[in-house]
Amino acid sequence: MEIDGIISAIVIGIVIGVLGRLVVPGRQRIGILLTILVGIVAALIGSWIAMGLGVADTRGVDWIEWLIQIGLAALGVASLDRTRARR
């Protein structure tokens, strides 16, 4: 992976992580770096799932892929928030 791929993964991770965090109701007790990390992982896994479903490369904006990624990020943020709340 080249430097531009790493930078774009970080930027997409930030966007996906923040959108996933906005979907989860209430206050989350995880930091911004963890949110970005969840967003990056959700973006990568969401792209892989969208590719498997055949909806990764469409004309225009890939809305289904974005929805999958945001849903995974919301799931990750909510899961981490629950583990933090138990401590």
Briefly characterize the structure.
By secondary structure, this protein is an all-alpha fold.
Describe the structure.
There is one protein chain. With 87 residues, the protein is mainly alpha-helical. It has one domain (12-21, 28-81). The chain contains three helices and no strands. It has helices spanning 3-23, 32-53, 63-86. Helix 1 (3-23) packs across helix 2 (32-53) and helix 2 packs across helix 3 (63-86). The termini are far apart.
Q: Report the span from N to C terminus.
A: 37 Å
Oligomer: single chain
Count of helical regions: 3
Uncertain segments: none
Shape: globular
The counted number of beta strands is: 0
Sheet having the most strands: none
Percent of residues in helices comes to: over 70%
Whole-number total of structural domains:
1
Query: What value does the average pLDDT take?
Result: 83
Q: How much beta, percentage-wise?
A: under 5%
User: Could you tell me the radius of gyration in angstroms?
Assistant: 13 Å
Structural classification: mainly alpha
Order of helices and strands: HHH
